Every structure is written in structure tokens, then in C-alpha cells.
Amino acid sequence: MPVMSIISCKIMQDEIVWLFTNDSEIDKIIIVENENISEFKEKLREQHVSYDIISFEKIPYHLGEMDENESIVVVNILELGLHAVPKTLKFEVYQNIKKMISFSDGILLFYGLCGNVLGKVEEDFCLEKDGCIVRILRDDERIVDDCIGATVGGGANYLKLLKANSKEPAFFFTPMYASSWKELLGFAKYHSDPEKALNMAKMVNDLAGYSRVAKVNTGLTYVKDIDAKIEEYASLFGYSTFEISGNQEIFEKCYLSMKDEIKNKTI
């Protein structure tokens, strides 16, 4: 019974929905029960993708009752904003890997370097040592920088985009970023003083020199009213907007590669 586990930042849930929607080989999807999955569940339902929601401690027992020929995927969605404190991000990702190793044949991380704290994760967890394959999103050359790097096709293309827009730096918005920018900027945290959250965001953006917002058109439509959400952000900060192309190539490549590795491991 091959079990692939996915640990993902909430910001990349749309790509997982797309992969599941287009993968007819999955027999069972299990979502780890936590506070980060409400949107993810709804999007899967809209695509008529079935799943079970199970708490961490019950997953091994549930797997033990399943047919040994079934192909299983376990998804663990982690909260937004962990990258704000790189040490916290690394700690949380590593802790979740440790929790999932015992019942996983392979774990695919929907993360990038994220401040360079996850660059050695494949070395720190390996098949020889842990009995589980651990992989992170990468292009043909190296681990991707972050969610934007993964969405625009990898590090080389990301660097080209940054250079092309260096005179007028842009904030890159994927659909999920457009949906979640208030959460990422801490508006909920400062609900009693939203002006404080706004001023902090403006200060950070001014330091980065942003003057525009780039909509990354991934072709995915799971987030509704993307343009309106981006315009709301742009208007708030006085930015202009433009569009660039994104795709699912890296997500698909890494996902299929992990499936192949697990198949070879379990033969």
C-alpha cells in the first residue's frame, strides 16, 4: 500500500487541487485535520474529488485498515505566514516530517528555500536513515526559491522576471496570494487596529521599493474574483497592476517524480 504524503504551505493548495483533479490513479485522499483546511476542502468538493479528514493520531490506524493495493495520498496543510520567522518555519516543517515518516513511503514538500532554511531537508531526512523518501520542490537545476519561483517555472525564469522589473519592482501575486494577502499582512492579528497592520505593510513595501502588483496567471480558477482582490490591494497601496504567465510544470514534475520513486521503492 504505497503512501505519499504532502506537506504544504496553505498558499500552494490550488496546485494540489489541480494535481488531484488530474490524477486518476489515487484511490484515497486523506487530509490531516487542522485549522488550515477549510478552503482546501471546499475546492476539492467543487472539483468532485472525494477525501477523508482524519486527525494525526488516527491516521496510522486508518491506513492499517485499508487494502494493501490501494494508492494513498495524505495531505498536511500548514498555516500561512510561517516564513515570516524562518527558524519557526523550519521547526514546524521538520516536526511535521517527523510525525509523518512512520506511515509514509515518501513525503513531498510544497515549499521552496523560503529564506534558505529548507535547503538541506533532503539530506536531513533520507531513505537510508529514515526509511522514507523526502523531496522538496525543485526545477532542473536546484530547489525553487519560494512559491512564486515554483509558479513561474523555476529559479532562472524567476530571476529574469525580477531583473526585467528591477526599475519598477513588483509584488507578485498568485491566486492564493490574492485571496490571502490580508491574512499574510496580519490584518486578523491586528483586528482591533487595522491601521497598524496597514502601516507596517506599507513600511515593508516601501523598503522593498514596490510600486506595482504583478498578477501571476497560473490558469487555475479555484480562487474567485482574483482581479478584484488584486485591485483592492493595489488601490490600498497606490500601485499599478500588470500580468505575467505562470504554470503548474514544476508541481506536476515533482509530484510525478515522487510517485515514480515510491513505486520503485515498494516494488
Describe this structure in words.
The chain is α/β, with parallel strands linked by helices and 267 residues long. The chain has helices at 13-21, 38-46, 59-64, 86-101, 121-124, 127-130, 147-151, 155-164, 175-184, 194-208, 226-237, 249-266; strands at 3-9, 28-32, 52-54, 72-78, 106-110, 133-136, 170-173, 212-217, 240-245. The strands form 2 sheets. It has a 6-stranded parallel sheet, sandwiched between helices. A 3-stranded parallel sheet has the order 7-8-9. α9 packs across α11. The protein is globular, with a radius of gyration of 19 Å.
How are the SSEs ordered, and which strands pair?
Elements: E1 3-9, H1 13-21, E2 28-32, H2 38-46, E3 52-54, H3 59-64, E4 72-78, H4 86-101, E5 106-110, H5 121-124, H6 127-130, E6 133-136, H7 147-151, H8 155-164, E7 170-173, H9 175-184, H10 194-208, E8 212-217, H11 226-237, E9 240-245, H12 249-266
Parallel strand pairs: 1-4, 1-5, 2-3, 2-4, 5-6, 7-8, 8-9
Helix pairs in contact: 9-11
Beginning-to-end CA distance, first to last residue: 11 Å
CATH topology of the largest domain: Rossmann fold
Q: Please give the largest β-sheet.
A: 6 strands, parallel
CATH-level-2 architecture of the largest domain: 3-Layer(aba) Sandwich
Main structural class: alpha/beta
Please identify the top-level CATH class of the largest domain.
Answer: Alpha Beta
Radius of gyration: 19 Å
**How are the strands ordered across the major sheet?**
3-2-4-1-5-6
Mean pLDDT, nearest integer? 92
The string of secondary-structure elements, in order, is EHEHEHEHEHHEHHEHHEHEH
Helical proportion, percent range: 40-55%
Tally of alpha and pi helices: 12
Strand segment tally = 9
> Any idea what the shape is?
globular
Beta strand %: 15-25%
Report the uncertain regions: none
- The structural domain count equals 2
